[in-house]
Amino acid sequence: MSTIPHADRFRALPGDDLPQIVPTDVCLACDVCCRFPERESFLRPYFTAEETARAIAFGASPESFPQPAGGRIRLAPHPDGEGFICPCFDHRTQECAIYPVRPLDCRLYPLSLMRDEAGRALVLGLDTKCPYVRDPAHAPRLDAYARLVGRTIESGLRDVVHAHPDLVGRYQDDVAPRMTLGPLPSSRP
Predict the structure, then answer these.
(1) Which of 12, 66, 111, 181 lies in the 20 to 30 Å Cα band around 147?
(2) pLDDT digits (tens, 9 = 90+) for 40-55
């Protein structure tokens, strides 16, 4: 049974079945996700064409997607005046308006796909800015989760990553590498 309301309206996409490891209460109390210091942040969520269509069908504004064939979402000024937010994020409730159909980029979090430091390999890492990740008590569970997601990417999501090389972010020293997933997608210049 799908957790997406009116699931019959949405085609299942690779990664839809990835579990969310961070408990809801931790997410809702956090002030890291979905907020960005600059409008063109390389960290803003990446949406494939299919994810864009689903988000729009779920109620997101088409104007938020300047590259409907696949690209990063257009951020909105934070209503409180500091920085920018994902336009699907409600800063009052801390909730995502498209949570059931959020893109793979968001489903992976607190994991992140990035280049290695040399820029040659695809790495799966944990974002140390996430409060759940910073708690050492969660390390064994997070390591197991990273292995699960890594296997999922290697077995069923590699085609998505290769079709959308911009889903892979640049190296970040505050993202702790957990697994190398091979060479970068060949379609990246």
Answers:
(1) 12
(2) 999 999 999 999 999 9
